[in-house]
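Q: Please design a sequence for this.
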């Protein structure tokens, strides 16, 4: 068994697709009709093409409650690895991304947390040498 797909809720799938492709720099892999929504996945240009992030609509009340509770408690919904967190933070800030936690060394890793504009906090981290 292995992980091939990870899902996060977004408050607007089109806005989420734009953010994760145009700002973060991921590539769209899937964009198909799925009932009243879409099946949208993105992949990292730096990672394996078979590991996908699904941008799920948060239309269900439980999804909205989950997303809101995590954000209100400043808990990131997921984390992405960076090989150069400082340059990644500067690149994202240059695209208007708002960070709730600036790069912080916490021992084995340095972390930073930003808002994805779709209702989530996302952590990026770099393993410290």
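A: Design:
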């Amino acid at each position: 068994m292995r992980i091939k797909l990870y899902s996060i809720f977004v408050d607007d799938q089109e806005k989420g697709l734009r953010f994760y492709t145009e700002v973060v720099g991921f590539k769209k892999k899937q964009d198909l009709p799925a009932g009243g929504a879409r099946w949208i996945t993105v992949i990292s240009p730096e990672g394996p093409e078979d590991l996908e992030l699904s941008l799920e609509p948060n239309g269900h009340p439980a999804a909205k409650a989950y997303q809101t509770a995590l954000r209100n408690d400043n808990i990131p919904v997921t984390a992405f690895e960076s090989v150069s967190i400082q340059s990644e933070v500067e690149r994202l800030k240059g695209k208007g991304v708002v960070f709730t936690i600036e790069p912080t060394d916490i021992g084995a890793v340095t972390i930073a947390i930003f808002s994805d504009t779709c209702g989530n906090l996302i952590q990026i981290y770099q393993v410290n040498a």
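Q: Thanks. Anything notable?
A: The chain has one domain: 5-127. Residues 5-127 form a domain with the 2,3-Dihydroxybiphenyl 1,2-Dioxygenase; domain 1 fold (CATH 3.10.180.10).
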